[in-house]
Automatic annotation (TrEMBL):
It comes from Subdoligranulum variabile DSM 15176. This is DNA repair photolyase. InterPro entries: DUF1848. It comes from the Bacteria. Pfam families: DUF1848.
């Protein structure tokens, strides 16, 4: 039996583009997910609050999801909210950071609490425009404006995949050296501390503990336990990279379905495929894109809750 933490989603921005679909799946009580490696293999996943031990949302724009947050209160949940310094040259589909995204972050925090909104300043990349000084200046401005609206910031440094390397041609991209990573981490940690933020890394090998930066857990058992009020007997996700500290989860997203168009995104391989997939999206389908086909093999995913009530102590 698998523990049921829902990741929504590392593969696409469900809050930004598929909020109605997600709420329909919550109402229906299940979701179907295609195996990325075997198109006709489909998992049917129970979404009952009785078995779901938590939901982790990953987003750059939660606004479409925020109008119906009351439908989520049966679940422990929190947000991994990416807010970076990049403009349209790197993140062409993301609305204005100053006019839309920052106010959305603050409003989300007011509504669900700062402990449930984790700020992701990632991935960090250097180009002719986005220099070390640029990052330090922008991080300081964001940390000041987000103080009190979040307790934690997660950073990572860009990983180059075949598709991301091609996408970043023309930006003047330069890989970060270890010296640059350590120098930048030290400066960011200093700024974070001044604004009462814990700084952690996401899936990074490099040891930044001398600067007070620990290896993070983006799908965080301790945080879910604090939100839910019970213990969770969860284990590390064996399907992620060794450097990843996340707990095991089931991702309900789909690759090549995010319309942000971020140049560094590993989950988008082709904008033409994104356009084709999003045209196949139907809010009432159990699948994020498309429908169940006659040749599909649909199997119920064996899951159960791993919650353990905290022991009660009497004085």
């Amino acid at each position: 039996m698998n523990p049921l933490i829902i990741s929504a989603s590392r593969r696409t921005d469900i809050p930004a583009y598929y909020a109605d679909w997600f709420y329909n799946r919550i109402r229906e009580g299940y979701v179907c997910v295609r195996n990325p490696m075997n198109f006709h293999q489909v998992s049917r996943i129970d979404l009952s609050p009785d078995v779901v031990d938590g939901i982790v949302f990953w987003t750059k724009n939660p606004l479409p999801l925020m109008s119906r947050l009351e439908e989520l209160w049966a679940y422990p949940f929190y947000f991994q909210f990416t807010l970076t310094p990049y403009g349209k040259d790197v993140e062409p589909g993301v609305p204005s950071k100053n006019d839309v995204i920052l106010p959305a972050f603050q409003e989300l925090s007011r509504r669900i609490g700062p402990e449930r909104v984790i700020w992701r300043y990632d991935p960090i990349l250097f180009t002719d425009r986005y220099t070390m000084d640029y990052h330090i200046t922008f991080f300081r401005q964001l940390a000041r404006r987000l103080e009190g609206y979040t307790h934690k910031c997660i950073i990572s440094f860009v990983d180059l995949y075949r598709n991301t390397q091609a996408n970043m041609n023309g930006l003047g991209f330069a890989p970060l050296t270890e010296k640059e990573i350590m120098g930048l981490a030290q400066r960011l940690a200093d700024i974070a501390g001044k604004h009462h933020l814990v700084l952690e890394t996401c899936a990074e090998q490099i040891d930044l503990s001398p600067y007070g930066v620990a290896h993070g857990h983006c799908i965080d058992r301790t945080l879910l336990e604090q939100i839910a009020g019970y213990r969770l007997a969860l284990e590390k996700d064996k399907n992620q990279r060794p450097e990843c500290g996340c707990m095991a989860s089931i991702d309900i997203g789909m690759y090549d379905t995010c319309r942000h168009g971020c140049k560094y995104c590993y989950a988008t391989h082709s904008l033409k495929t994104v356009a084709r997939n999003t045209q196949a999206h139907a809010p009432n389908s159990p699948l994020l894109c498309g429908q169940i086909l006659p040749e599909d093999v649909v199997k119920e995913r064996a899951v159960k809750s791993y919650k353990e009530e905290f022991p009660q102590f009497s004085l």
